[in-house]
């Protein structure tokens, strides 16, 4: 897994809230869609 900065994590969360697909976000960030979903799920459960 790539180590993401807080800035990149915030960008991923914003994209998910804007209804961008996980696969599209993953392609842009060069990570897996599953990792995108994991980041967003953690955000929803725990907040920032």
Distance between the termini: 20 Å
- Count the domains: 1
Radius of gyration (CA) equals 10 Å
Percent strand? under 5%
Order of helices and strands: HHH
Which class best fits the helix and strand makeup? Answer: mainly alpha
Q: What is the β-strand count?
A: 0
* Mean pLDDT figure: 94
Low-confidence stretches: none
Helix content: over 70%
Largest sheet: none
Tally of helical runs: 3
Give structural notes.
The protein has 48 residues and is an all-alpha fold. It has one domain. The chain is built from three helices and no strands. The termini are far apart. The mean pLDDT is 94.
Question: What is the strand and helix layout of this fold?
Answer:
Elements: H1 6-17, H2 22-29, H3 33-46
A few lines on this structure:
The chain is an all-alpha fold. The chain has one domain (6-46).
């Amino acid at each position: 897994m790539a180590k993401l900065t807080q800035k990149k994590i915030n960008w991923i969360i914003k994209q998910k809230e804007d209804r961008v697909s996980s696969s599209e976000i993953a392609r842009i960030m060069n990570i897996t869609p599953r990792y995108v979903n994991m980041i967003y799920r953690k955000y929803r459960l725990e907040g920032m």
